[in-house]
Design a protein that fits this description.
heterodimer, A: 376 residues, alpha/beta, Rossmann fold, 2 domains, six-stranded mixed sheet, five-stranded parallel sheet, 18 helices, 42% helix, 19% strand, B: 355 residues, alpha+beta, 60s Ribosomal Protein L30, Chain: A, Phosphoribosyl-aminoimidazole Synthetase, Chain A, domain 2, seven-stranded mixed sheet, four-stranded mixed sheet, globular
């Protein structure tokens, strides 16, 4: 199977878009949870292909965007310490903390390194026994197994100088929080395919029932997304609310049981603050008692951090869908991808950054209506 | 020259007395006997030409009358050796290409080395020999140079600066501000090869098939193109750091025009595309070292494309877009889905995404 071409076939995409236009008889609001899907929708212009009434609402599924500021400040404080090698995925490096970002810490002499896998950070710890190696383990259920494996290996191999700064967040509690919000307008969800490849989708039927909302497990290629949207619209039109799997080539109902077993051993559920949204009960993971010794927050007693969000930044309202990016007074003026005030302007998965780039093509009027379409 | 990323120095024989010092020592930059030996036994044999041989404080040479172009660039790539080339090839081709895309015929280069104490001499010899071979292929002469040595820990093995002088071709007026509405945008071949070759070695990423740098001197290709369509070429540039996206954005801004490109027409090797997908990168932002983009008057575009394809470095040349009066200073791509997206200039280096 040629994943790079077959799921990007323009003709089939146009056909699927036509089908959605034929099926849709009224406006629907569908949220894609995952930032990777937001990225693909914007990059491939999927939103431009949909009929006018079908509105995609970008969910809080960008791990870079929802990692709380207090934790980023903690990361900066740890990374600035002598004798520390601080490892992170690339796109966390530009996320602004209260006073700096990881790039600036690196410029001031901090040993900050981009790695592609937390296991690389474990190897760094082995090679640098006189240093403390910390991996910034953020993300949803997708990145969790590799992070879990890193502390699992570190514990088994008695690697004492490795630790994990954890801020894992979970999708089902986020869906519940969004649907329970009085201002919610979301009518259907595209569940994140890669999250489900790990977790399966057995957690979703009860949510679909509770909120009478279709949930379609969806992939990331243009045809995957169009298929997910198509199935959601068909269900909405029929008044159904089932969980469907539109990503069968990757996702099974049960998910990756081995990974789930490891996750259950390494992590325990905890309340978690989502940047811009606030604390969602039982919405995240932290290291379990057995692995607590590898928790960077325990190992580095960081005190005296002053954490303050920019008073201008409305990223929280954007993440909740309460305003569109262009309605933020700082959008495009005080806040640009070059000088981001909030995380949503940093990551290519962030709604503000996506609008900043995409919006340049549109007139102010078009931008306002596109913004309205995307942010309720 | 080693090309597989793991240089083989086993066959390199060092003429006495360089053998006394298998690595660079501070004295090699001290202007004394050791430095002279480096010149005499390494640089001179490799780069040999009359202007260099006089070993004066400055190279003296003659150039045909006319307008001259001059460019300089510094090279700090890590690793020094990578699939498809080394810092040596880059240092020569980088300056040659900067002159060539300015419409000049590159003639003479300078080469300055900043070496770190402890840098192995066989590696320096491999770099120098790569420069000599590359200069010969490009038809330029390295006529003057300098060597400095910094203490261990103050450098990264080997840094190189090159500067070059070229003679502008008469009748050719190219520049980033000269793109005109209606111009056709051509690219000389596949994009992203160099950046992904470097990244795969630097990060120890293992892909099924090795990605090789496209590092090459473009002056021959550009000479053929200008021979064929001459003044119909309005702008050209080699899309190095920041990739094709940054170069096209620069030209759109400098010329105050919009550029529309068709994403599916941009040639990208399947292995480069795959590696980019894996890391969450976009090949339009990835560096090239042997490619150029051209803005050509529409009536000459077909002829220009044929001329490019007739050259070994342009076989995969393609027509990727047009210059438009719409959306000035913006680069807009038609996606394979039939939708449009703005391709903005990257803020800094492209960062691999979390997931």
């Amino acid at each position: 199977m040629k994943y790079l071409s077959e799921f990007r076939n323009g003709e089939i995409a146009q056909r699927m878009a036509r089908e959605i236009r034929q099926v849709a008889t009224q406006p629907w609001k569908i949220m894609e949870i995952c930032g990777g899907q937001t990225h693909s929708i914007i990059r491939n212009g999927i939103d431009q292909m949909l009929p006018h009434g079908i509105e995609m609402i970008h969910g809080p599924g960008c791990p870079v965007c929802v990692t709380p500021l207090s934790l980023i400040d903690k990361a900066l404080a740890i990374a600035a310490q002598p004798g520390v090698i601080f490892c992170s995925f690339g796109d966390m490096l530009r996320v602004p903390g209260t006073d700096a970002d990881l790039f600036q810490i690196k410029g001031r002499g901090g040993d900050v390194r981009v790695v592609y896998s937390p296991l690389d950070a474990v190897e760094l710890a082995v090679k640098n026994p006189d240093k403390q190696v910390v991996f910034f383990g953020v993300g949803f259920e997708t990145t969790a197994p590799a992070n879990a494996m890193s502390v699992h290996l570190a514990r088994r191999r008695s690697i004492k100088n490795f630790s994990l700064l954890v801020s894992h967040v979970l999708v089902p509690p986020a869906i519940e929080a969004i649907m329970s919000s009085p201002e919610n307008q979301v009518q259907a969800f595209l569940a994140a395919g890669h999250v489900c490849s790990v977790m399966g989708y057995w957690e979703y039927p009860s949510l679909a029932d509770q909120f009478k909302s279709p949930i379609v497990v969806t992939g990331f290629e243009p045809l995957d997304l169009l298929d997910g949207i198509r199935r959601a619209v068909i269900q909405l039109e029929k008044g159904e609310h089932r969980v469907e799997n539109a990503y069968e080539r990757i996702v099974s109902y049960a998910g990756n049981l081995e990974a789930q077993q490891l996750l259950a051993e390494v992590f325990e559920v905890t309340d978690r603050a989502w940047r811009g949204i606030g604390v969602i009960p039982k919405s995240g993971w932290r290291l379990s008692d057995k692995y607590r010794a590898f928790d960077a927050e325990e190992r580095f007693q960081i005190s005296g951090i002053h954490t303050a969000e920019s008073p201008l930044c409305k990223a929280g309202d954007v993440l909740r869908g309460a305003i569109k990016p262009a309605q933020c007074p700082a959008f495009g003026t005080d806040c640009t991808p070059r000088r981001p005030l909030g995380a949503t302007m940093v990551s290519s998965e962030g709604a503000c950054a996506a609008y900043f780039n995409y919006g340049r093509l549109l007139s102010a009027e078009e931008l306002a209506s596109a913004g309205a379409a995307h942010a309720q | 020259m080693p090309n597989n990323g793991t240089p083989d120095f086993s066959n390199w024989s060092c003429p006495l007395p360089l053998r006394d010092y298998p690595t660079i020592v501070m004295g090699h930059g001290g202007g004394g006997k050791l430095g002279n030996e480096l010149v005499e036994h390494l640089f001179l044999p490799a780069f040999r030409n009359p202007a260099l041989e006089s070993l004066g404080d400055a190279a003296v040479f003659e150039l045909s009358s006319g307008r001259l172009a001059m460019s300089t660039d510094s090279f700090v790539v890590q690793p020094l050796f990578f699939p498809g080339g080394s810092i040596g090839e880059l240092a020569v081709n980088g300056t040659v290409n900067d002159l060539a895309v300015s419409g000049a015929e590159p003639k003479f280069l300078s080469a300055s080395f900043i070496l770190e104490e402890g840098f192995p001499l066989p590696q320096l010899a491999a770099v120098v020999n790569a420069m000599a071979e590359t200069a010969a292929i490009a038809g330029v002469r390295i006529v003057t140079g300098d060597t400095k040595v910094v203490e261990r820990g103050h450098g990264d093995g080997c840094y190189i600066n090159t500067a070059g002088i070229g003679v502008l071709r008469p009748g050719i007026a190219v520049g980033p501000s000269r793109a005109q509405i209606g111009d056709v945008v051509l690219v000389s071949g596949t994009i992203g090869d160099h950046g992904m070759a470097i990244m795969s070695v630097r990060e120890g990423l293992e892909f099924e098939s090795q990605i090789r740098s496209d590092c090459a001197a473009l002056n021959g290709l550009i000479a053929d193109l200008l021979e064929a369509v001459g003044p119909a070429v309005h702008a050209m540039r080699d899309p190095t750091r920041g990739g094709v996206a940054s170069t096209l954005n620069e030209i759109a801004t400098a010329s105050n025009v919009g550029i529309d490109i068709d994403e599916s027409s941009i040639p990208v090797r399947i292995e480069v595309q795959s590696a980019c997908e894996l890391l969450g990168l976009d090949p339009v932002y990835v560096a090239n070292e042997g490619k150029a983009v051209f803005f050509v008057a529409p009536e000459s575009a077909d002829h220009a494309l044929s001329a490019l394809r007739a050259h070994p470095l342009g076989r995969e040349a393609a027509r990727i877009g047009v210059v438009t009066a719409q959306h000035p200073r913006m680069l807009v791509a038609r996606t394979p889905m039939g939708s449009n997206r703005v391709i903005a200039t990257q803020i800094g280096e492209q960062l691999p995404r979390i997931c």
